[in-house]
Amino acid sequence: MRMVDIITKKRDGGVLTNEEIAFFVKGYVDGKIPDYQVSALLMAILFKGMTNEEIVTLTDLMEHSGDVMDLKCIEGVKVDKHSTGGVGDKTSIALGPMVAACGAKLAKMSGRGLGHTGGTLDKLESIPGMQVFVSEEHFINQVNKIGLAIIGQTGTLVPADKKLYALRDVTGTVESTPLIASSVMSKKLASGSDCILLDVKFGNGAFMKNAKSAEELAKIMCAIGNSLGRDTRAVLTDMEQPLGLAVGNALEIKEAIATLNGKGPKDFTDLCLRSGAIMLEQAKIAKSEEEGIEMLKRVIADGSALGKLKDMVREQGGDVSYIEHPEKFELSKHIVDVKAAKDGYVKRIVALEIGESAMRLGAGRETFDDVIDMSAGIVLNKKVGDKVKKGETLCTVHTNKEEFSQILKDIENSFVIVDEFVEVPPTVHAYIH
What we know:
Layout: H1 3-11, H2 18-29, H3 35-48, H4 52-63, E1 78-83, H5 91-101, E2 105-110, H6 120-124, H7 136-146, E3 148-152, H8 159-171, H9 177-190, E4 195-202, H10 211-227, E5 231-238, E6 246-247, H11 249-260, H12 266-282, H13 289-301, H14 304-315, H15 321-324, E7 334-339, E8 344-349, H16 351-363, E9 377-380, E10 387-388, E11 393-399, H17 405-413, E12 415-418, E13 428-432
Helix pairs in contact: 1-3, 2-4, 3-8, 4-9, 4-10, 5-11, 5-12, 5-14, 9-10, 12-13, 16-17
């Protein structure tokens, strides 16, 4: 079998056999097939696509290209969630404790942020002492003990994805739906949970720019997971504006804490309730979405959801006093309000601009070597659909940088204010399973 024959077959629109896909995945991981040939195949896949059967085979081979987590030692149904990334997306930090308080077992491996999307690990590390890299034994014991752990992915999981993703990033092939789907699902499947909920975001602040492409990706990923024996479902959610109010690491942790105290923003709280209800259905704890939502509301009201967050922080070495007293989080040197220039209604908040501005304020990284300022970020005071008067605060900027006047202008320009009334858009647009 020759790699050049596989490349030309896909270039001409052919369907690759399981053996051909296995040849290229194993050969590339083992270093026997060069980057330039795999680059050519990735470009052919970008232009010609893959069948669902090809994508399932590719995902399965990538999943098993390294170690696979064995979570059989964890009692009960293991649930996991994955977001395709967005601005202000702190969902796992509130949702995990909520579903754990209802009896589900959340065993989650998360990633870091790059560019305008924040990473769950970075947000958790804004809690002093919090350890996001623990041993597999600690991970399993913690989930058995408290029903919840969110940690960093180990270096031995899915080496095929690490190599392919790095190559896609420099060859203009990141946007291929089959390659996105196999990348996401290989990591989720290798993490070992029984059920997976995917939060597929679309809009200017998300990777998928419109609902149609997000739905296509969600359906493919659900098909992969279900074909490989995992209950996989998805929600399509809005990223035309930031999720919730806070954008920035410590600021988002504080918002997650407020949500677990029953005082979170409506859009963020709704997403947590609807996503959590689906996860409780997957775990066979709730018989319907309505029942699941009521269970989740109860664990917020009685304090047990917040208690689970404290448990997780404590088990992973973090200072629980910051969860009990969020005012302890260090504030930025400069805290400045951005004011509205006119009366009207907020029609749009350009999520991409807010995310990139937060990064430039110090809240994110452009390269993996950049150091994050945990206190930096933006807190919205107005959302789409809100009425605003000239001089009212649109948002508050937090930064330790000395020069940020241009960033303030960019943030102000990201708010589109119109004269006519604007409907509040839904956060969750569709549910796919």
